[in-house]
Design goal:
By secondary structure, the chain is of the alpha/beta class. It folds into two domains: about 220 residues, TIM Barrel; about 250 residues, Ribokinase (UDP-N-acetylmuramoyl-L-alanine:D-glutamate ligase, 3-Layer(aba) Sandwich). The strands form two sheets. It has an eight-stranded parallel barrel, surrounded by seven helices. Helix 3 links the parallel strand 2 and strand 3. The protein starts with 9 loop residues before the first strand and ends in an 11-residue tail after the last helix. About 5% of the residues have low confidence. It binds ligand 3NM and magnesium ion (MG). The site of magnesium ion has 4 residues, from loops. It comes from Remersonia thermophila.
Length: about 525
């Protein structure tokens, strides 16, 4: 088999431990996976004598050959030589690449585990045939991994090896399974280079039916992720819209009308303080609110065509488990998710919760104040005080931060403040509407998330436009409420704000977009 013909889409790494293989026969499990279409197999045995290992490898090589699939041996160049199989996979603590290449020859397939840009560049430079990039997510299969790099880490490596001109094949490894494989592929893709596939152990070897599991993974790998159902089609429209200076009325109007006409479900998993207010905001803009914090309900609710808001305002262990269930359900149904990382930097618990949520699913919109967005981006050492917002970044830095986070997470990022910044990673907008009065009452940040969820649930446009429309609707309503002569304090403001939200919706539905003249 020629090296360039190897199909890395689904790469099977074996594990004979009772916890994963159970009492089944390894050759049988691998053959089942080969029947499903696994394109490359690595025998990975951490225990056993050399003689025994060679026998195992020989038997497995016979199986792999039947399917014309290469067999590599983890770490053991001697075993690969003894068996005459197609190559080896070496880790950073194994034999060095140059020596392995010298012993095995130029036709052997040699893969290298890398978890940093430096290691990746070195392996490409040294002539590795492919890189196993990881560890993507923490995994019980291998607990002595050095670095959990996430999809952002994989992406960074892909970008940097592409920049250096290498075309080395790549797979990612570590905690990849059916529930995250599409997201891992999508979010890992660099600007110039994507992954060739994924390597898995337990998702196949530990499955009750390895053939069905491998087939399912391959189907997922070959089909567009549900959360991209209309994103791909809209991407074109988006770049065209942002190239020409857009006519606001023609983009904002349809979004607000769509909410009015479709009454989308806005499923809020939100904190105790804002449930009532957020539900009233949802009604005022024409959405159908449900405040449901129990994760088991999410699978049914996700089928109703709405969107989910995960508002981390009241975080506790039960809450977190519920968020993760709901996130998975909405991702699987291909319905959008808005993440509001309330108070993200305030406590260690919240910082960890942010990481857990970000690793567990795909988020369409991340919305927070400056401190929260900095924490989500990572590396923010400042201690955030409660959930209050304070600002230290310049306007240019804010715009750049939201754009970089949107690019990294492949989603829309909103940073709220006196001026709000919104980006999909390609276009970045600043919104100067709103009123300081929004900061004088509680729940106004949270119910902006609710408003955004309704707009992306019923959108007929790309996500960025939907989010922008929701923000303008929300902030201009607040401005109008604040300027009413009868509004002298926070109480009257709240009532007037709900009224203005509703009035803007009705005006827009009947074709009157004069309120939009206030947009800045
Ligand atoms: N290497 P599972 S993680 C063999 O990070 C291996 O280099 C890793 O197992 C690395 O698919 C890993 O069951 C185990 O999570 C992957
Ligand atoms: Mg190793």
């Amino acid at each position: 088999m020629r090296k360039e013909d190897i199909d890395y889409t689904l790469y099977l790494v074996t594990d004979s431990s009772p916890a994963i293989l159970g009492d089944r026969d390894l050759n049988h499990v691998v053959e089942e996976a080969l029947k499903a279409g696994v394109g490359i197999v690595q025998l990975r045995e951490k225990k056993g004598d050399t003689r025994e290992l060679i026998e195992k490898a020989r038997a497995l090589h016979q199986v792999a050959k039947k399917y014309n699939v290469p067999l590599l041996i983890n770490d053991r160049v001697d075993v690969a030589l003894a068996v005459g199989c197609e190559g080896v996979h070496i880790g950073q603590d194994d034999m060095d690449l140059a020596t392995a290449r010298r012993l095995l020859g130029k036709d052997a397939i040699i893969g290298v585990t890398v978890s940093s840009v430096e290691q990746a560049l070195e392996a490409c430079q040294g002539g590795a045939d492919y890189l196993g990039i990881g560890t993507v997510y923490a995994t019980p299969t291998k607990t002595n991994t050095k670095d959990i790099i996430g999809t952002a880490g994989v992406r960074n490596i892909l970008d940097r090896i592409a920049d250096a001109g290498y075309t080395t094949r790549t797979v990612s490894i570590g905690g990849v399974n059916a529930s995250n494989v599409q997201r891992v592929m999508f979010q890992s893709n660099g600007l110039r280079k994507g992954l060739d596939g994924v390597a898995v152990v337990s998702a196949i070897v530990g499955a009750a039916n390895p053939q069905a599991a491998a087939l399912n993974l391959l189907t997922l790998l070959k089909s567009p992720p549900p959360f991209l159902s209309d994103l791909g089609r809209k991407a074109q429209a988006l770049s065209e819209a942002s190239a020409a200076k857009p006519d606001l009325a023609s983009i904002v109007g349809p979004v607000i009308r769509a909410v009015h006409e479709t009454t989308p479900l806005s499923h809020n998993m939100t904190n105790l303080v804002v449930q009532n207010f957020a539900a009233n905001v949802a009604l005022a803009i024409g959405a159908s609110p449900i405040m449901a914090n129990y994760g088991e309900e999410a699978a049914d609710l996700a089928k109703l065509g709405g969107a989910l808001v995960i508002n981390m305002g009241t975080v506790d262990p039960d809450g977190l488990a519920n968020y993760l269930k709901a996130l998975r359900a909405y991702n699987e149904a291909g319905r959008p998710v808005v993440f509001d990382p309330v108070g993200a930097g305030a406590t260690t618990i919240r910082r960890e919760a942010v990481k857990t949520i970000m690793a567990a699913g795909y988020l369409d919109v991340i919305k927070g104040n400056e401190g929260e967005i900095k924490t989500v981006f990572g590396g923010n050492k400042e201690q955030q005080r409660g959930v209050d917002s304070s600002s230290t970044l310049s306007a240019a830095d804010k715009a750049s931060l939201v754009q970089r986070l949107a690019q990294r997470e492949k989603c829309v990022v909103v940073m709220t403040g006196k001026t709000d910044y919104v980006s999909d990673g390609t276009s970045t907008w600043a919104v100067d509407n709103g009123t300081p009065r929004l900061g004088a009452v509680t729940g106004t940040g949270c119910s902006l998330g609710t408003t955004i969820s309704a707009a992306i649930a019923s959108r007929k446009t790309d996500r960025l436009t939907a989010v922008m429309a929701a923000m303008l609707h929300y902030e201009i309503a607040a401005e109008l409420a604040d300027q009413r002569p009868d509004v002298s304090g926070p109480g009257a403001f709240l009532a007037a704000f709900l009224d203005e939200l509703s009035r803007i919706r009705m005006d827009t539905a009947s074709g009157n977009l004069s309120w939009l003249e206030r947009a800045k």
